[in-house]
User: Which sequence fits this backbone?
């Protein structure tokens, strides 16, 4: 019953987010600020992780190809498939649930604790729209981060594979282009768009409705990370079933 | 003027406010006092529209809050200024941006007009040369001044203050109290202050409402509070050693 109550409140929150819009000029500045905080602030860690995970995927695939009948191009093929289909959209979203999610929860939670949200409400401002809506819009830029991660991940796989002496550059590029299905990119970006919405709203929910003091802000951040991850994993399963089966 | 009639509010089955009826007059500093847990903050949040009463009504210059539609309630809230206990300044904004915020949200003024108004208000609360500082870079007393400036920048009809001098040294507390009183008279607004500070009562208490366990136990002005024989009020007032000594000295004719 407790979880049902929370789910109900989450959807009521969404209703609140999309009603009584904040003044356009103020909203524009808020969105730009959120893009800076949530998207640009995450680029560094995303590129770093993408490069090394891509490299590891290539090495792992190469080390497991012991059968000489299996062509080396498979390393490029497997790296591309795993990075585009799962690593970039899902794995990075789970990491972003920790980075972006805890930032959102703690910033909104701190505003709740220090009565800044009450101050907004007293002024007649729809605090949900003011605080959460810009984050949702800013997170629409998240697929661009994932696109960069895909590129850097494949670059990491190429460097590790080719310069690690596992296969030639020609083999990697041939494997990379082999049986490319462009719909897989569509699938990946549909997933990413839905994850970006979850990444913006679930941590906001935990921050907005938290009660207590500084300690509870920390607890809310942890809870937000756990639930965002759980929902992303479940959504990933459902979306894969719906879009790829 | 704010008229409160038979106000009831509770949480999880526990009654916090039990039938409060009172009036807060315009141009006066109205104080809500009482011990911790007496329901002061809940009462104030009901007045602000942050809590919905279970029973009773709150009437702002003839407009009953519960009878207003959402848009009208929003318009009414735009006429309210609030000074929170912890100031509730937006910590990512500078002093100037904090004070300008309500103007940006609710007016169509140009940036120059808004800045002019911001500097006028900051000057009024004796806070100059701190415009570009963040709330974390200024003292508690200065934060309270910024909060007052933000609350009055849009010319509100109602000013609410939740323990405006808590955490301040006695001298700064008096300065803040007097500033609120001066602004109340100057702008002719209805001010309601939630406090348990007897110094504030002495300084600015033109109308005092004493709450005890959710009931309105007593109301009067600062001259009456020391003459009342209501035990709950005298217990509260003379819980301060200073006031006790003053009373003892008066009784001894010193």
Assistant:
């Amino acid at each position: 019953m407790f979880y049902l109550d929370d789910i109900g409140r989450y959807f009521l929150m969404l209703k609140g987010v999309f009603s009584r819009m904040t003044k356009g000029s103020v909203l524009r500045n808020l969105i730009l600020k959120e893009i800076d905080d949530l998207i640009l602030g995450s680029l560094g860690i995303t590129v770093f992780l993408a490069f090394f995970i891509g490299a590891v995927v290539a090495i792992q695939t190469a080390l497991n190809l012991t059968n000489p009948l299996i062509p080396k191009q498979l390393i490029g093929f497997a790296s591309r498939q795993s990075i585009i289909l799962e690593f970039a959209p899902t794995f990075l979203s789970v990491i972003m649930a920790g980075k972006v999610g805890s930032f959102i929860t703690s910033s909104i939670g701190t505003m709740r604790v220090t009565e800044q949200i009450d101050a907004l409400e007293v002024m007649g401002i729809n605090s949900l729209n003011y605080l959460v809506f810009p984050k949702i819009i800013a997170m629409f830029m998240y697929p661009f981060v994932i696109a960069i991660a895909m590129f850097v991940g494949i670059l990491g796989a190429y460097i590790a594979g080719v310069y690690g002496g596992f296969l030639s550059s020609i083999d990697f590029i041939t494997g990379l282009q082999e049986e490319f299905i462009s719909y897989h990119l569509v699938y990946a970006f549909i997933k990413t768009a839905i994850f970006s919405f979850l990444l913006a709203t679930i941590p906001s929910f935990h921050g907005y409705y938290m009660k207590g003091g500084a300690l509870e802000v920390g607890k809310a951040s942890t809870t937000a990370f756990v639930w965002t991850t759980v929902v992303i994993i479940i959504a990933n399963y459902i979306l894969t079933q719906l879009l790829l089966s | 003027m704010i008229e409160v009639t038979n106000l009831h509010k509770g949480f999880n089955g526990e009654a916090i406010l039990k039938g409060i009826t009172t009036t807060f007059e315009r141009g006066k500093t109205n104080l809500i006092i009482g011990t911790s847990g007496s329901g002061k903050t809940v009462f104030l949040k009901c007045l602000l529209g942050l809590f919905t009463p279970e029973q009773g009504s709150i009437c702002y210059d003839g407009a009953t809050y519960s009878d207003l539609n959402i848009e009208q309630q929003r318009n009414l809230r735009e006429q309210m200024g609030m000074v929170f206990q912890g100031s509730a300044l937006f910590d990512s904004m500078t002093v100037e941006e904090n004070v300008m915020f309500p103007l940006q949200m609710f007016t169509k003024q140009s940036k120059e007009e808004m800045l002019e108004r911001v500097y006028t208000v900051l000057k009024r609360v004796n806070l100059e040369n701190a415009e570009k500082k963040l709330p974390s870079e200024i003292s508690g007393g200065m934060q309270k001044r910024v909060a007052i400036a933000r609350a009055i920048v849009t010319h509100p009809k109602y000013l609410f203050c939740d323990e405006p001098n808590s955490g301040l040294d006695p001298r700064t507390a008096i300065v803040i109290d007097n500033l609120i009183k001066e602004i109340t008279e100057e702008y002719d607004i209805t001010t309601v202050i939630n406090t348990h500070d007897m110094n504030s009562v002495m300084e600015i208490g033109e109308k005092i409402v004493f709450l005890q366990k959710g009931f309105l136990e007593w109301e009067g002005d600062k001259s009456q509070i020391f003459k009342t024989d209501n035990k709950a009020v005298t217990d509260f007032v003379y819980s301060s050693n200073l006031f006790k000594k003053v009373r003892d000295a008066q009784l001894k004719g010193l």
Notes: Chain A touches chain B at residues 20, 22-23, 25-26, 110, 114-116, 118-119, 121-125 (CB under 8 Å).
